[in-house]
Write a structure and sequence with these properties.
Blueprint lengths: L15 H7 L6 H21 L4 H22 L6 E3 L2 E3 L5 E2 L7 H13 L4 H32 L1 H33 L4
Antiparallel strand pairs: 1-2, 2-3
Length: 190
């Protein structure tokens, strides 16, 4: 939209229909935050209901531990690693995947953020279809990194586990959501 000499946006004659097509729905920051918090709380509550169920076992043991053990074998085939329940077991030290380490919380943060920002439903579904596997892959990389850190240097493990890697996951999810919003703003409206 062009700006006047005083910096005020205006619609030149004959462009009202074009400008209306490209208008982006805005949502106040407080609404985005409130929607994010409500969506996250609801989804997290749902996940807490799964504690001790087959759903939790499948998520942790089958969808998190098994792929992580396979990745460790791929990175270093000389390590006799296996997935046993919630643990990645190997001579010289393994890793227990406890609640919170499976990556669900960061996936819920992503899903809640996508629910909160102003996107069309189609774009939300695409954002989730791309974003959730992206976060899953990042969390698998985090687990494999922690596996090798535990075996090499326990103090490095603690720093990576409690500070560096969680912050990197949050930064990655935040950047992804900001990119979605910017791409949505730049997209032509029909």
């Amino acid at each position: 939209m062009p700006l006047s000499t005083s910096g005020i946006p205006y619609l030149p004659d004959g462009e009202i229909g074009v400008a209306a097509q490209h208008a982006t729905v805005q949502r106040p920051a407080w609404q985005i935050l409130l929607l994010f918090l409500l969506a996250f709380a609801a989804m997290h509550w749902g996940w807490t209901l799964a504690r001790g169920t087959t759903v939790e076992r499948v998520v942790v043991e089958e969808a998190t531990v098994r792929p992580a053990a396979a990745l460790v074998r791929w990175v270093d085939p000389s390590i006799a690693v296996s997935a046993r329940g919630t643990s990645i077991v190997a001579p010289g030290g393994g890793l227990d995947i406890i609640r919170g380490c499976e990556g669900i919380d960061i996936m819920l943060i992503l899903a809640a953020a996508i629910c909160a920002v102003p996107l069309t439903w189609r774009r939300r579904m695409i954002a989730l279809a791309v974003g959730l596997p992206f976060v899953f892959a990042l969390n698998q990389a985090r687990i494999v990194t922690l596996f090798f850190a535990w075996r090499a240097d326990r103090s490095l493990f603690e720093t990576l586990h409690t500070l560096v890697l969680p912050v990197l996951l949050v930064i990655a999810v935040t950047a992804y959501v900001f990119a979605l919003v910017e791409l949505d703003r730049a997209a032509p409206r029909h």
